Amino acid sequence: MAGKLERVLLTEEQIQQRLEELAQQIWRDYEGKDLLLVGILKGAVLVMADLMRHLPGSVKMDWMAISSYGSGTKSSGVVRIIKDLDTDITGKDVLVVEDIIDSGLTLSWIMANLGSRKPASLQICTLLRKPEVAKVKIDVQYVGFDIPNEFVVGYGLDYAEDYRNLRCIGTLSPSVYS
Ligand code: IMP
Ligand code: MG
């Protein structure tokens, strides 16, 4: 499977080391608070699993699944909730966990939606961020890596639902697309 990659952008070791750093920072910032991590399915499954295991104490976890109407590899920002949170986040300290922010349209919508439920605080942690996001106004508190504007797969990220289980992140060989 890794043979389908054109180039490895981030190795398993780099990803884990960065998640450990982010976890330490998050743990300090949320000291004394009852932190609720909200993962966005399906891409954030691996980030959530590893990030939360790097945290030295207990946190709660919830999930949301959304579908964004987009064609191919571009998102439109038109979003529908497929699976909503199980819990009421009113008055909670919520940290949204994402795999990647590209245009930021999906996450802007999610933040407006969650923000309307009146959490005590609402922040974002994303493993990857692409430069496109500069076009929308969105504050991201925790970023793993800023990456170039290329389509990447692995570590939760898919191409047509494949490659999510790769331990590293990379770009696909052009032959995969043809
Ligand atoms: P946005 O609304 O453009 O920020 O889209 C974000 C979503 O698009 C992510 O949650 C991913 O599901 C998907 N996405 C964006 N870039 C990539 C990529 O390089 N590889 C795989 N999925 C991507
Ligand atoms: Mg996603």
Element-by-element helix/strand order = EHEHEEEHEEEEH
Distance between the termini: 17 Å
Report the count of strand segments. Answer: 9
Ligands in the structure? inosinic acid, magnesium ion
Q: Which sheet architecture does the biggest sheet show? A: 6 strands, mixed
Strand content: 25-35%
Task: Write structural notes for this entry.
- The protein is of the alpha/beta class and 178 residues long.
- It is built from four helices and nine strands, in the order E-H-E-H-E-E-E-H-E-E-E-E-H.
- It has helices at residues 12-29, 45-53, 105-115, 174-177; strands at residues 5-10, 35-41, 60-68, 79-83, 93-101, 121-129, 142-146, 152-153, 169-172.
- The strands form two sheets. A six-stranded mixed β-sheet has the order 4-3-2-5-6-7. The chain has a three-stranded antiparallel β-sheet with strand order 1-9-8.
- Strand 2 (35-41), helix 2 (45-53) and strand 3 form a beta-alpha-beta unit.
- The longest helix is centred in the N-terminal third of the chain and has 18 residues, at 12-29.
- The chain is globular and about 50 Å long.
- It starts with a strand and ends with a helix.
- Residues 40, 43, 99 line the site of magnesium ion.
How are the elements arranged and paired?
Layout: E1 5-10, H1 12-29, E2 35-41, H2 45-53, E3 60-68, E4 79-83, E5 93-101, H3 105-115, E6 121-129, E7 142-146, E8 152-153, E9 169-172, H4 174-177
Parallel strand pairs: 2-3, 2-5, 5-6, 6-7
Antiparallel strand pairs: 1-9, 3-4, 8-9
